[in-house]
Design brief:
The protein is mainly α. The chain has 3 helices and no strands.
Length: 70
């Protein structure tokens, strides 16, 4: 009986979905808006948070996200 080795092709990395060039250009501005919005949210007191319909826990959860996360 002759044994042959079967070689498997190396696994290819998963391709990221194609992102339009316009989206890539706008990404830094989006990240900046998120960072500034979260900074402002962190400065709000309980009364202001209540006015916009958020609890302190919800605000804390949003503020704790990094700027690149939606």
């Amino acid at each position: 009986m002759i044994r042959t080795q079967t070689r498997h092709a190396p696994a290819l990395p998963v391709a990221l979905p194609a992102m339009p060039l316009a989206s890539l250009v706008e990404l830094p501005a989006l990240w900046r808006r998120r960072a500034l919005t979260r900074r402002d949210l962190a400065r709000m007191d309980r009364h202001l948070l209540s006015d916009i319909g958020l609890t302190e826990q919800q605000a804390l959860a949003e503020v704790s996200k990094p700027f690149w996360r939606e």
